[in-house]
Amino acid sequence: MAITESLSNCSSSDTGPVIPTTPLVTFLERVQEAALKTFNETNFDPKLYVDLSLKLDLSTTEKAFDEVRKSANGSLSVEGLKGFIEKYFEGAGNDMVYIEPVDFVSEPEGFLPKVENPEVRAWALEVHALWKNLSRKVSDEVHKRPELNTILPLPEQVMIPGSRFREVYYWDSYWVIRLVLLSFSLFVFNKSSSTTTTFET
User: Which of 85-99, 129-143, 159-173 shows the lowest mean pLDDT across its residues?
Assistant: First the structure.
């Protein structure tokens, strides 16, 4: 279903929480809520848990989660929850792997030669070089077992935003494509636009 079609079913009068759409998302929401209670806000990263991939099937993982030792107040113990996450989840970001952009050039021929100030030019080259660090593709394991992951099994390479944002996002893709075209790569543009089209099908 296209995004525009799904949005047409929403209205400004809709209220209440977002309802998870898959059993995996529902389960990860449970883990996230437990982590907030266990680790408290100071040691809690709300983005971490939705980026985790299962090592085993969902039913096995859910059963193990229900058996994690609880403290006297009913919350999960810190040691128990950390041990569970380490045993049953892959590391965040493991569902994407690095791939070198094939037509990257260290000094783009478009806008950069027009930059005359040497300090600004050096800074621009440093920023431009970041593209090489942001290129990713979905791992083969995701394509083999998509049910263990929240990420879509996208067919082409993508550019991620970076830092703790380890996956490709629809809105970011628009700006990425514009900047990639400006910086160096018609090839990566074609791959990224293909992936963006996948979001809508």
Answer: 159-173
- Give the Å distances, CA to CA, from 182 to 18, 99, 112, 134: 37, 20, 10, 16
Find tokens 């089209």 and name the residue.
197
**Secondary structure of 6-48 in the HEC alphabet?**
HHCCCCCCCCCCCCCCCHHHHHHHHHHHHHHHHHCHHHCCCCC
Contacts of residue 12, Cβ cutoff 8 Å, sequence gap at least 6: none
Helices (H) and strands (E) in the chain, counts: 9, 3
What are the residue boundaries of the structural domains of the chain, listed by start?
13-88, 96-199
- Angstrom distance (rounded) from CA 164 to CA 47: 8
What integer pLDDT is reported at residue 115 of this predicted model? Answer: 81
For 66-100, write each residue's pLDDT tens digit: 999 887 777 888 889 999 999 999 988 889 999 98
pTM of the model: 0.69
| Residues 54 and 90 sit within 8 Å (Cβ to Cβ) | yes
